[in-house]
Amino acid sequence: MKVAIETERQDLFDISIVIAMRIHISGRVSETAIEKAFETAVASHEILNTRVVLEDDGRAFYYKEDGKISESKNEITFEYNDWMDILHREEKIRMRLEDGQFMKAFVYEMDDSGCGILFLMHHLGGDGKSMVYFIETFMRCLDGETVEPVEMRTIPAGDMSDEALKDKVGPLMLLPKLYNKRWRADEKHKIFNFNDLDDAFECYWEDKSSEIDEYVITPKMVSKIMDRCHRWGIGFTAYISTSFLRFMGRRLEIGYAVDAREDGNRCMGNQATGISLKYAYNYDKSFEWNAKKVQKLMDKKLEDEEARNFVLYFMSIFDPSLEDAINLEHAKSFTSKTSKKISGILGYGKKCNDLSITNLTKLDIPDTYGDLKVDYFSFIPPVISYGRNIIGLSTLGDCTIMTIHRINAAS
């Protein structure tokens, strides 16, 4: 099996692209049961049993030799330590995608009443919803259920002819084509490999670490916010966005991750797209007035299929090695005239999104599995190279958590 990595290709050389989720399970569990459940869940998801291969021309693929069962590099470790310390250590260690490592998990606390687990997954293993569905599979296995194999699902680029791209991207298709031409003529043009990615990790993380804040939004507060949202005709994401706009007091560029599962599948794989908007809070108007304006801007993008999927196809036009060079520019482990210019244009430098928000909403998985219950669920999106403050929102049962994730220089 060989599946091209196309619309998600820019994630391959991103040095901060690991999704984190941490859960607490109430109920008696054993190390043996957890380990077996994790192994069974990994085996059931096709994408976690592939590896990434890089071709000589820079193209990348998910690959699995037909009929061959290889030892999984996705592992769960029992390390009774502070989960933040584990994350700070692991964010500096790249996933060995070429060996088939997309996920790591750490049991960081355990007693007779339950356990806490931190899951880390490279974005090429899937998007936020993919990880939610993996955790559901894991919990089902932990409860002793038999699970069926789940195929991988990604979003292929499809027809990349000029005529097709005009419909998908419009005149902006000319920008990546122009820079592809410049890149191929650049004296520093090269095809990168995983050794270059190792160098980028070492360079970038030498003086940096994550800062993560978690906020529990009580059921009472959620109810109050949702009542306002219903009365005003807006969504929870628009409400939260407006809160940040009011607090930060300046015009912001906000990016939003958007689920692209048109058929509602529950497969693992990167099936997300994104939109963005720019807005400055109007202090002469009410919060409600501003929130409705934000919702209107969001709806305009979400209801326009071309705008909603623009970023997927636009980035697919770039030469794969130029996408790598852009990420390495951000890591400051490589520079060229071409990659420096286009990385600035695309927001991989100082002019990145002020906020990026991923709202997984009310998770469409149960919180109870037999005698076990997931009574805490926190979603921490990655600080992508073109983002600054990354907001994660999720609700499971009556547990609603908001996280803010950013990268700071180490003190």
Strand order of the largest sheet: 5-6-7-2-13-12
Query: What percent of the residues sit in helical stretches (DSSP H or I)?
Result: 25-40%
Total strands: the figure is 15
The chain-level mean pLDDT equals 94
The main pleated sheet reads as: 6 strands, mixed
Series of secondary-structure elements, N-terminal to C-terminal: EEHEEEHEEHHHHEHHEEHHHHEEEEE
| Low-pLDDT regions | none
- The percentage of residues in β strands lies in 25-35%
Radius of gyration equals 21 Å
Shape: globular
**Main structural class:** alpha+beta
> Whole-Å distance between the termini?
46 Å
Features:
alpha+beta, 411 residues, six-stranded mixed β-sheet
Descriptive overview:
There is one protein chain. Helix content is 35%, strand content 27%. The protein is of the alpha+beta class and 411 residues long. The strands form 3 sheets. It has a 6-stranded mixed β-sheet, with helices on both faces. Helix 2 (83-90) links the parallel strand 5 (75-78) and strand 6 (103-111). The radius of gyration is 21 Å and the shape is globular. The mean pLDDT is 94.
Short description:
With 411 residues, the chain is α+β, with helices and mostly antiparallel strands. Helix content is 35%, strand content 27%. The protein has a six-stranded mixed sheet, sandwiched between helices. It has a six-stranded mixed sheet with strand order 8-15-14-11-9-10, with helices on both faces.
